[in-house]
Automatic annotation (TrEMBL):
Originating organism: Conexibacter arvalis
Protein name per its UniProtKB record: Glutamine synthetase
Region named Disordered: 1-26
Family membership noted in the UniProt record: Belongs to the glutamine synthetase family.
PROSITE patterns found in the cross-reference section: GS_CATALYTIC
One function term, GO molecular function aspect: glutamine synthetase activity
Feature: compositional bias, Low complexity: 1-17
One GO term of the biological process aspect: glutamine biosynthetic process
Annotated Pfam families: Gln-synt_C
Length: 462
């Protein structure tokens, strides 16, 4: 895996080195910044205003929005705060012309307090802090995100199906549930061509695209970069891919589990560390790990348990976990073992890495990557040792069982000393509160209706 330098610090006005030329001829800038779920939110701002050094402002409360924009009344979402503003400071190294809208420049932003210090509850700022810790430890991070997602046709049946939540009413992009298929390529080729070209122009290079096991399911592996670059690419991919899909009359979904009988959509995180430009995990031969690699692995498994809510942030996320479908339930590891939670890939000095297989495609990319990196660094600092390698079914004798419901994962996060030392009390409390609120909303919706199968089974016979 290759890597690049740490992302530039946010600044007010762009310089020639950080995007000034991109603003030539641009009328507007789309400022983009992640919410608590990791999705990008933003607004259009006059380019001339930002060129003069003005900093956009967002209400702090946006960090406490649920997926339906209901406000979680906790921390920045509390009425006692007065719902004041925070600064969203552009990181001009991320500036890109929007493909097809050349008069608009998109730029990712960090969250700051009004005094210019990093906002303690902002996901991108949290990851930047962990990346700084990595650099101070003498390492350079390298992460690559791999997404599986569903593609459906927006035909005459789609509106009714979406309104009712009836998945059976959606028409998949392809009828064949064949992975690594070339037979399915005529169905998706035009979309994929547009996707790869558009994402590259948007700053999200895609290394590989393939069909997955599921009718209408695709996988895209994003090119690796530093931890911050990888999270930025993941967030931009989910936004940009949906825009491309709409041009082709398609709907994309990154839901973790769509149907009980089908495998879920993963969001695997490939990761390694470099020291002086060399892979710090490689130990000279396959199926071996360096001392640094062993310690990082032990810390990564620890973070998987402590920060699981960041890797599986919604109640639906937990429907995906099924060892029979390569979605692990234990914090176990193994060499080239897809049944394990962490797959150790030791193919050579350039490619040795860990594949974190716990996250789904609905992961919070900034916080999940931050948790993985911080966990690995914790393992290196404390010289932790991993448990024995799991068997080929992914079962480890000393492996910890991972939480099976979001409310439990939120409680684990809130009680975690590691999470609080990594992210700070304010972010941990806010994130746990938003997960608990989402779990409560899900339970209320579930219990507020009787499913059709239950009515059908009992209506006429009891």
């Amino acid at each position: 895996m290759t890597t690049t330098k740490e992302a530039a610090r946010p600044t007010a006005a762009p310089t020639e080195a950080t995007g000034e030329r991109l603003l030539d001829g641009a009328t507007h800038v789309r400022v983009e910044t992640p919410d608590i779920d990791g999705n990008l939110r933003g607004k259009l701002v006059l380019a001339s205003k930002l060129a003069e050094g003005a900093l956009p402002m967002f209400p702090e409360a946006y960090l406490a929005f649920r997926v339906d924009d209901e406000l979680v009344e906790h921390g920045v979402g509390s009425a006692e705060t007065g719902f004041g503003d925070m600064v969203v400071a552009p990181d001009w190294s991320t500036a890109r012309r929007l493909p097809g809208r050349e008069h608009v420049v998109a730029v990712l932003c960090d969250g700051l307090r009004k005094d210019g210090t990093p906002h303690p509850a902002h996901p991108r700022s949290a990851l930047r802090r962990v990346e700084r810790d990595c650099a101070e430890a003498g390492f350079e991070s390298c992460f690559g995100v791999e997404f599986e997602f569903w593609a459906f046709r927006l035909d005459e049946r789609a509106d009714a199906a979406l309104a009712s939540g009836d998945v059976a009413g959606l028409t998949p992009l392809s009828r064949l549930p064949q992975g690594y298929s070339l037979l399915r390529w005529p169905d998706c080729g035009d979309f994929v061509d547009d996707l790869t070209a558009t994402m590259s122009a948007y700053g999200v290079p895609i290394e590989t695209v393939l069909t997955e096991i599921g009718d209408g399911m695709l996988e895209a592996a994003l090119a690796p970069g530093t931890a911050l670059e990888a999270a930025d690419r993941a967030a931009r991919f989910k936004l940009g891919a949906r825009e491309v899909a709409a041009r082709h009359g398609l709907l994309l979904s990154f839901i973790a589990k769509l149907r009980p009988s089908d495998q879920g959509s993963s969001g695997h995180l490939h990761q390694s560390l470099l020291r002086d430009g060399r892979n710090a995990f490689w130990d000279g031969a396959p199926e071996r790990l360096s001392e640094t690699g062993r310690h990082y692995l032990a810390g990564l498994l620890h973070a998987t348990h402590e920060c699981g809510a960041m890797m599986a942030p919604f109640p639906n996320s937990y429907r995906r976990f099924d060892p029979a479908q390569w979605a692990p339930c234990e914090a176990a590891w193994g060499f080239d073992n897809r049944n394990a939670c962490v797959r150790a890939i030791t193919t050579g000095a350039g490619g040795t890495r860990f594949e974190q297989r716990r996250p789904g495609a609905d992961l919070q990319p900034y916080l999940a990557i931050a948790a993985c990196l911080a966990g690995g660094l914790h393992g290196i600092r404390e010289r932790l040792e991993p448990p024995p390698e799991a068997d080929k079914l992914g079962r480890g004798e000393e492996a910890r069982t991972l939480d099976r419901e979001l409310v439990d994962a939120a409680a684990t996060l809130r009680a975690s000393r590691f999470a609080r030392e990594t992210f700070g009390d304010e972010l941990v409390e806010l994130y746990a509160a938003t997960r608990e609120a989402e779990a409560e909303a899900w339970t209320r919706l579930r219990d507020g209706q009787i499913p059709p199968w239950e009515i059908k089974r009992y209506l006429e016979v009891v």
